[in-house]
Amino acid sequence: MKSQTKRRPGESRWTGFFYLVPAFLIYLLFTLIPIADTVRSSFYDWGALGKSNTWVGLGNYANLLKDSVFLNAFSNNLVFIIFYSIIPILLGLFLSSLLGRYPLPGFTFFRTVLFLPQVISMVVVGVIWRWMFHPTTGPVNLFLGIIGLEHLQQAWLGSFQWALSAVGSVGSWVQYGFCMVLFLAGMQRIPEEYYEASSLDGANELQQFFYITFPGLKSEIGVALITTIIAALRVFDLVYATTRGGPGESTMVTGFLIYRTAILNNNIGYGAAMATVLTIVILSLSLLIRKLMTDHTNEAV
Amino acid sequence: MTLHWNKLIPRYLVLIVFMLIVLIPIYGALMSAFKSNVEIASSPFSIPQTWTLENFHQAWTAGKFNVFFKNSVIVTTVVVIASVFLSTLSGYAFGQLPLPGRSILFTLMLVGYMVPFEAMVIPLYNWMGVLGLRNTYWALILPQVGLSVSFGTLWMSTFFENTPRELTDAATIDGCSRWQTLWLILWPLSKPATTTLIVLIFMWTWNEFLLALVMVQSEAMRTLPVGLAFFQGRYTSNLSLMAAGAIIVALPTVLIYILFQRFFIRGMLGGAIKG
């Protein structure tokens, strides 16, 4: 933040408060205090509202570490990081290094389309992909039939082996356009002379990618990592709209488990402990990535 | 530097392939909404033999999408207006006004922007129950405004910090109060920043699912995404009806995105960068 604005002659030093208070009050009541209350509840064995409300200290957290359902859900979130984050970022880097250095007439149109999944409700995305993956009439299986891979046809979302990857790949579908647009915007900043000079020095395209493009996109890659990893860790809507955690618990994720534990099964303290863990993981990861990325670049990220 | 045809064409082909991967599922769903279920099964991507609006009609009336649509419009309108107005005031406070404890307050505002809804939904669910506000618009509006002003304040304060100081100084000399300076001098200049904020908060609120799912049990209070999710549970094999429902949910955000895409993309890239 820039330095504080000068006060006008005779102006109260509290002027800013009057403008801040309405927004801050709502934010305090409906965001900050609920967050604090989630953390507080996580120290209680708290069943249905008002009943069996006893202090258990870190008991809920100790149970979480032994709870195979929770550990499974959390590790599914980690698998989702591959689909939501790693694959889209690699695809985005590949595509933008292929396209980014040269003006491409009509790119605005491509950008509009590539960004489209970002603005559509994830429930709608889930409905669309449940149809795509439909066992008998779904286009995915039809396509496999057409290219002669009938033996791969299956009920993707109902398969213990494939459901997690199927839902995850929907995440890749949502995120790769975002990464591409982000990286392409970043590449506009890298001076063309760098590439020209390195060509004269005999660098090939791979070397140019590692020594010019990749370092030049550092802050964009950091941004892409933060946004997509957070999306992978907090995924809820998509799982709700495609598999509801099934078959069995094979696509169960932490967000859905919190909902099931605290809201559906009224196990408030335990659900709150899960929510606290998830929040801490998300907060520390985003702070860590921001720090890593700003250590090496002086840009205001 | 421009590229030769023989290099340009392969690049376009790659771009077209990745564009089609995005577009084909959406196009298929759009076509399905105008077809019968029999036709979807036999030729999923064809243009409908006879275009029918029957699916939309059925989703709208029998599926109660008219009710969900009304709820979504009410909640989104109130959230957008309240959040943008409050964020303009608070962003102005951070960007231009004397404010003791500025950096602590700023960090506090940042928390809400990074934290997921899961972190606050459990107490909100309980309190709204205690206050008797579950199944009301308030339960959907107030938490959404709380979260939106977190981002909105950060977004607008960047705008106010970067407006030339000479402008506000001149306004001071002309005798404008702080309030007048904000609305007469700065507000007209803030149009791009405000437009971006409006479209982003619109999209987030329209698409919000977890909060709306948890706070509302009665069918009459559901928003569109929640309505669609329950609809899907009930008509699981009726693909054309579901496609029509999905189009109703997606159409407003897609239209606004196409109209305001410059603001959308700038906001989502810039917003991500701030986060």
Through-space gap between termini of chain B: 35 Å
Helix-strand pattern of chain B, N to C?
HHHHHHHHHHHHHH
CATH class category label of the largest domain in chain B: Mainly Alpha
- Radius of gyration of chain B, Cα only, in angstroms? 23 Å
Oligomer: heterodimer
Poorly predicted runs of chain A? 297-301
Number of domains of chain B: 2
Work out the helicity level of chain A.
55-70%
Per CATH, the superfamily of chain A is MetI-like
Helicity range of chain B: over 70%
The CATH class of chain A, by name, is Mainly Alpha
Overall pLDDT score of chain A: 88
**Total number of helices of chain B:** 14
Structural class of chain A: mainly alpha
Task: Please render the helix and strand layout as text.
The complex is a heterodimer of chains A (301) and B (275).
Chain A: H1 15-41, E1 44-45, E2 54-55, H2 59-66, H3 68-99, H4 107-119, H5 122-132, H6 139-146, H7 163-187, H8 192-200, H9 205-216, H10 218-233, H11 237-242, H12 254-264, H13 268-296
Antiparallel strand pairs in A: 1-2
Helix pairs in contact in A: 1-13, 3-7, 3-10, 4-7, 7-10, 10-13, 12-13
Chain B: H1 5-32, H2 37-42, H3 54-61, H4 65-96, H5 102-114, H6 118-130, H7 137-161, H8 165-173, H9 178-189, H10 191-207, H11 210-215, H12 224-234, H13 239-259, H14 261-274
